[in-house]
Amino acid sequence: GVKAMHTAFLMRSFTEVARMDGTVLIHCEDDGICQYEEDTLRAAGRTDYHSQWEWRSKLAERVAVETVIEIAKETGCRVNIAHVSQPELLRLLHQAREEGYRTYAESCPHYFNLTVEDLEKKGPWVKFTPPMNTAEKVEELWKLFDLGYVTTIGSDHCPYPKEQKLPGEKNIWDAPNGIPGVETSLRLMLNGVSQKKTTLNRIVECMCENPAKLYGVFPKKGHIAVGADADLVLLDMDKEEVISNDRIVSKCKWSPFDGKTVKGAPAAVYLRGKLVAKDGKFVGQVGYGQFVHRIKPCI
User: Fold this and answer.
1) Distances 139 to 49, 106, 134 between C-alpha atoms, Å
2) Fewest C-beta atoms under 10 Å: which of 17, 92, 117, 248?
3) Residue 4 pLDDT exceeds 80
Protein backbone atom coordinates (compact mmCIF):
# COMPACT_ATOMS: atom_id res chain seq x y z
CA GLY A 1 0.00 0.00 0.00
CA VAL A 2 2.78 2.44 0.93
CA LYS A 3 4.62 1.75 -2.32
CA ALA A 4 1.43 2.48 -4.29
CA MET A 5 1.12 5.81 -2.47
CA HIS A 6 4.71 6.73 -3.35
CA THR A 7 4.23 6.01 -7.04
CA ALA A 8 0.88 7.84 -7.10
CA PHE A 9 2.56 10.88 -5.53
CA LEU A 10 5.34 10.73 -8.13
CA MET A 11 2.82 10.47 -10.99
CA ARG A 12 0.88 13.48 -9.70
CA SER A 13 3.89 15.68 -8.99
CA PHE A 14 5.83 14.77 -12.15
CA THR A 15 2.75 15.44 -14.32
CA GLU A 16 2.33 18.87 -12.72
CA VAL A 17 6.03 19.79 -12.93
CA ALA A 18 6.13 18.70 -16.60
CA ARG A 19 3.14 20.97 -17.29
CA MET A 20 5.13 23.94 -15.91
CA ASP A 21 8.34 22.79 -17.65
CA GLY A 22 10.06 22.69 -14.27
CA THR A 23 12.80 20.44 -12.97
CA VAL A 24 12.50 17.78 -10.27
CA LEU A 25 15.56 17.05 -8.11
CA ILE A 26 14.88 13.76 -6.38
CA HIS A 27 16.67 11.59 -3.79
CA CYS A 28 16.31 7.94 -4.81
CA GLU A 29 16.18 5.18 -2.21
CA ASP A 30 13.24 2.79 -1.96
CA ASP A 31 11.73 3.29 1.48
CA GLY A 32 10.19 -0.19 1.68
CA ILE A 33 13.54 -1.91 1.07
CA CYS A 34 15.37 0.41 3.50
CA GLN A 35 12.74 -0.28 6.17
CA TYR A 36 13.02 -4.03 5.66
CA GLU A 37 16.83 -3.87 5.90
CA GLU A 38 16.65 -1.71 9.04
CA ASP A 39 14.23 -4.07 10.78
CA THR A 40 16.43 -7.06 9.90
CA LEU A 41 19.68 -5.39 11.05
CA ARG A 42 18.22 -4.03 14.29
CA ALA A 43 16.67 -7.42 15.11
CA ALA A 44 20.14 -8.95 14.72
CA GLY A 45 21.56 -6.35 17.13
CA ARG A 46 23.87 -4.87 14.50
CA THR A 47 25.40 -1.51 15.51
CA ASP A 48 28.69 -1.78 13.57
CA TYR A 49 29.70 0.76 10.92
CA HIS A 50 29.24 -1.63 8.01
CA SER A 51 25.56 -2.16 8.87
CA GLN A 52 24.84 1.25 7.33
CA TRP A 53 25.97 -0.03 3.95
CA GLU A 54 23.53 -2.94 4.24
CA TRP A 55 20.70 -0.71 5.51
CA ARG A 56 20.78 1.84 2.70
CA SER A 57 21.47 -0.83 0.13
CA LYS A 58 22.49 -0.44 -3.49
CA LEU A 59 19.31 -2.39 -4.32
CA ALA A 60 17.17 0.29 -2.64
CA GLU A 61 18.84 2.98 -4.76
CA ARG A 62 18.50 0.98 -7.98
CA VAL A 63 14.80 0.19 -7.49
CA ALA A 64 14.03 3.86 -6.78
CA VAL A 65 16.03 5.16 -9.77
CA GLU A 66 14.42 2.65 -12.12
CA THR A 67 10.95 3.70 -10.89
CA VAL A 68 11.75 7.40 -11.35
CA ILE A 69 13.12 6.84 -14.86
CA GLU A 70 9.94 5.02 -15.93
CA ILE A 71 7.66 7.70 -14.45
CA ALA A 72 9.80 10.48 -15.99
CA LYS A 73 9.48 8.76 -19.38
CA GLU A 74 5.71 8.45 -19.02
CA THR A 75 5.12 12.05 -17.87
CA GLY A 76 7.83 13.77 -19.93
CA CYS A 77 9.13 15.44 -16.76
CA ARG A 78 12.67 16.84 -16.54
CA VAL A 79 14.34 15.01 -13.65
CA ASN A 80 17.76 15.32 -12.04
CA ILE A 81 18.51 12.37 -9.76
CA ALA A 82 20.44 13.52 -6.70
CA HIS A 83 23.70 11.92 -5.47
CA VAL A 84 23.92 8.91 -7.79
CA SER A 85 26.40 6.43 -6.26
CA GLN A 86 26.41 3.62 -8.86
CA PRO A 87 27.93 3.44 -12.35
CA GLU A 88 25.06 1.11 -13.36
CA LEU A 89 22.59 3.92 -12.68
CA LEU A 90 24.63 6.53 -14.57
CA ARG A 91 24.40 4.16 -17.54
CA LEU A 92 20.62 3.77 -17.22
CA LEU A 93 20.09 7.54 -17.01
CA HIS A 94 22.42 8.11 -19.96
CA GLN A 95 20.54 5.52 -22.01
CA ALA A 96 17.20 7.24 -21.30
CA ARG A 97 18.76 10.59 -22.32
CA GLU A 98 19.99 9.02 -25.56
CA GLU A 99 16.36 8.00 -26.20
CA GLY A 100 15.34 11.65 -25.83
CA TYR A 101 14.11 11.73 -22.23
CA ARG A 102 15.22 14.44 -19.82
CA THR A 103 16.76 12.21 -17.17
CA TYR A 104 19.86 13.75 -15.63
CA ALA A 105 22.33 12.59 -12.99
CA GLU A 106 23.78 14.55 -10.11
CA SER A 107 26.67 13.03 -8.19
CA CYS A 108 28.93 14.33 -5.40
CA PRO A 109 32.67 14.47 -4.68
CA HIS A 110 32.34 11.94 -1.85
CA TYR A 111 31.30 9.21 -4.30
CA PHE A 112 34.56 9.74 -6.19
CA ASN A 113 36.78 9.96 -3.09
CA LEU A 114 35.43 7.57 -0.45
CA THR A 115 34.91 3.81 -0.47
CA VAL A 116 33.09 1.40 1.81
CA GLU A 117 36.46 0.78 3.55
CA ASP A 118 36.34 4.42 4.72
CA LEU A 119 32.93 3.75 6.27
CA GLU A 120 34.35 0.78 8.14
CA LYS A 121 37.14 3.00 9.53
CA LYS A 122 35.42 6.35 10.12
CA GLY A 123 31.80 5.36 10.76
CA PRO A 124 29.62 8.37 11.67
CA TRP A 125 32.07 10.85 10.10
CA VAL A 126 31.35 9.41 6.66
CA LYS A 127 27.71 8.46 7.21
CA PHE A 128 25.52 9.79 4.40
CA THR A 129 22.93 8.34 2.05
CA PRO A 130 23.02 6.75 -0.40
CA PRO A 131 26.32 5.48 0.99
CA MET A 132 29.57 5.37 -0.99
CA ASN A 133 30.58 2.43 -3.19
CA THR A 134 33.41 -0.12 -3.43
CA ALA A 135 36.88 0.90 -4.66
CA GLU A 136 36.27 -0.93 -7.95
CA LYS A 137 32.99 0.93 -8.56
CA VAL A 138 34.61 4.27 -7.66
CA GLU A 139 37.11 3.78 -10.51
CA GLU A 140 34.18 3.07 -12.84
CA LEU A 141 32.38 6.21 -11.61
CA TRP A 142 35.42 8.31 -12.57
CA LYS A 143 35.49 6.74 -16.05
CA LEU A 144 31.80 7.50 -16.63
CA PHE A 145 32.22 11.00 -15.21
CA ASP A 146 34.96 11.62 -17.76
CA LEU A 147 32.69 10.32 -20.53
CA GLY A 148 30.03 12.92 -19.62
CA TYR A 149 27.55 10.61 -17.88
CA VAL A 150 27.24 12.96 -14.87
CA THR A 151 25.22 16.13 -15.48
CA THR A 152 25.87 18.08 -12.28
CA ILE A 153 28.11 17.81 -9.22
CA GLY A 154 26.55 18.89 -5.91
CA SER A 155 28.11 19.10 -2.45
CA ASP A 156 25.11 17.62 -0.56
CA HIS A 157 26.38 19.88 2.25
CA CYS A 158 24.83 18.72 5.52
CA PRO A 159 27.02 20.01 8.38
CA TYR A 160 25.98 18.30 11.62
CA PRO A 161 27.96 19.57 14.62
CA LYS A 162 30.55 17.13 16.06
CA GLU A 163 28.51 16.46 19.20
CA GLN A 164 25.60 15.15 17.12
CA LYS A 165 27.83 12.76 15.14
CA LEU A 166 29.86 11.52 18.13
CA PRO A 167 27.27 9.05 19.60
CA GLY A 168 27.54 7.13 16.30
CA GLU A 169 31.04 5.99 17.25
CA LYS A 170 29.46 3.64 19.82
CA ASN A 171 26.27 2.85 17.91
CA ILE A 172 26.20 3.91 14.26
CA TRP A 173 22.39 4.27 14.28
CA ASP A 174 22.77 7.16 16.76
CA ALA A 175 24.52 9.46 14.27
CA PRO A 176 22.46 11.48 11.78
CA ASN A 177 22.99 11.08 8.00
CA GLY A 178 24.99 13.78 6.28
CA ILE A 179 28.44 15.33 5.87
CA PRO A 180 29.73 18.86 5.22
CA GLY A 181 30.95 19.32 1.65
CA VAL A 182 30.54 22.79 0.19
CA GLU A 183 34.07 24.06 0.84
CA THR A 184 35.88 20.88 -0.23
CA SER A 185 33.81 20.01 -3.34
CA LEU A 186 35.73 21.93 -5.99
CA ARG A 187 39.14 21.00 -4.52
CA LEU A 188 38.27 17.29 -4.49
CA MET A 189 37.16 17.39 -8.13
CA LEU A 190 40.24 19.42 -9.16
CA ASN A 191 42.35 16.77 -7.45
CA GLY A 192 40.78 14.28 -9.87
CA VAL A 193 42.12 16.44 -12.71
CA SER A 194 45.59 16.45 -11.06
CA GLN A 195 45.38 12.65 -10.87
CA LYS A 196 44.55 12.51 -14.61
CA LYS A 197 41.15 10.91 -13.94
CA THR A 198 39.33 13.65 -15.85
CA THR A 199 39.73 17.11 -17.39
CA LEU A 200 39.06 20.67 -16.29
CA ASN A 201 36.47 20.91 -19.08
CA ARG A 202 34.40 18.16 -17.47
CA ILE A 203 34.57 19.90 -14.07
CA VAL A 204 33.44 23.22 -15.60
CA GLU A 205 30.61 21.44 -17.41
CA CYS A 206 29.28 19.72 -14.26
CA MET A 207 29.88 22.47 -11.71
CA CYS A 208 29.19 25.63 -13.76
CA GLU A 209 27.55 25.22 -17.16
CA ASN A 210 25.10 22.32 -16.67
CA PRO A 211 23.70 23.47 -13.30
CA ALA A 212 23.00 26.92 -14.82
CA LYS A 213 21.27 25.33 -17.82
CA LEU A 214 19.30 22.82 -15.77
CA TYR A 215 18.09 25.30 -13.15
CA GLY A 216 17.28 28.08 -15.59
CA VAL A 217 19.93 30.73 -14.91
CA PHE A 218 21.86 30.28 -18.18
CA PRO A 219 23.12 32.35 -20.13
CA LYS A 220 23.50 34.90 -17.31
CA LYS A 221 25.38 32.31 -15.25
CA GLY A 222 27.44 29.25 -16.12
CA HIS A 223 29.70 30.47 -18.93
CA ILE A 224 32.07 33.21 -20.02
CA ALA A 225 30.58 35.44 -22.72
CA VAL A 226 29.70 39.06 -23.42
CA GLY A 227 26.48 39.87 -21.55
CA ALA A 228 26.88 37.11 -18.94
CA ASP A 229 27.73 37.91 -15.32
CA ALA A 230 31.52 37.96 -14.97
CA ASP A 231 31.58 35.15 -12.39
CA LEU A 232 35.10 33.76 -12.60
CA VAL A 233 37.21 31.34 -10.58
CA LEU A 234 40.95 31.53 -11.16
CA LEU A 235 42.68 28.26 -10.37
CA ASP A 236 46.14 27.38 -9.15
CA MET A 237 46.51 23.79 -10.34
CA ASP A 238 49.97 23.44 -8.72
CA LYS A 239 48.77 24.30 -5.24
CA GLU A 240 48.85 21.29 -2.96
CA GLU A 241 47.20 21.38 0.44
CA VAL A 242 46.03 19.09 3.19
CA ILE A 243 42.34 19.37 4.07
CA SER A 244 42.32 19.93 7.81
CA ASN A 245 39.54 20.28 10.40
CA ASP A 246 41.23 23.32 11.94
CA ARG A 247 40.93 25.23 8.65
CA ILE A 248 37.28 24.42 7.96
CA VAL A 249 35.18 27.59 7.68
CA SER A 250 31.78 25.89 8.05
CA LYS A 251 30.29 26.19 11.55
CA CYS A 252 30.56 22.41 12.04
CA LYS A 253 34.39 22.72 12.01
CA TRP A 254 35.11 19.24 10.64
CA SER A 255 35.45 17.50 7.29
CA PRO A 256 35.22 13.81 6.36
CA PHE A 257 38.36 14.50 4.28
CA ASP A 258 40.48 15.70 7.21
CA GLY A 259 44.09 14.69 6.48
CA LYS A 260 43.60 14.21 2.72
CA THR A 261 46.10 15.92 0.38
CA VAL A 262 44.52 17.57 -2.65
CA LYS A 263 46.20 19.29 -5.59
CA GLY A 264 44.50 22.17 -7.41
CA ALA A 265 42.76 25.04 -5.65
CA PRO A 266 40.83 28.25 -6.36
CA ALA A 267 43.21 31.23 -6.09
CA ALA A 268 40.67 34.00 -6.68
CA VAL A 269 36.90 34.30 -7.12
CA TYR A 270 35.16 37.11 -8.96
CA LEU A 271 31.42 37.76 -8.67
CA ARG A 272 30.00 39.99 -11.44
CA GLY A 273 33.55 41.16 -12.15
CA LYS A 274 34.39 42.02 -8.56
CA LEU A 275 37.01 40.17 -6.49
CA VAL A 276 35.20 38.47 -3.57
CA ALA A 277 37.69 35.79 -2.46
CA LYS A 278 41.46 35.51 -2.63
CA ASP A 279 43.67 32.64 -1.40
CA GLY A 280 40.86 31.14 0.63
CA LYS A 281 39.83 34.39 2.34
CA PHE A 282 36.60 36.34 1.77
CA VAL A 283 37.44 39.87 0.57
CA GLY A 284 34.04 40.88 -0.82
CA GLN A 285 31.37 43.17 0.59
CA VAL A 286 28.40 41.81 2.50
CA GLY A 287 25.26 42.69 0.55
CA TYR A 288 26.88 42.55 -2.89
CA GLY A 289 24.89 39.41 -3.76
CA GLN A 290 21.79 39.76 -5.93
CA PHE A 291 18.70 37.64 -6.39
CA VAL A 292 19.00 35.62 -9.61
CA HIS A 293 15.69 35.21 -11.45
CA ARG A 294 15.02 31.80 -12.92
CA ILE A 295 14.23 31.66 -16.62
CA LYS A 296 13.44 28.58 -18.70
CA PRO A 297 15.85 25.62 -18.26
CA CYS A 298 17.63 24.94 -21.56
CA ILE A 299 18.50 21.25 -21.30
Assistant:
1) 23, 17, 9
2) 117
3) no
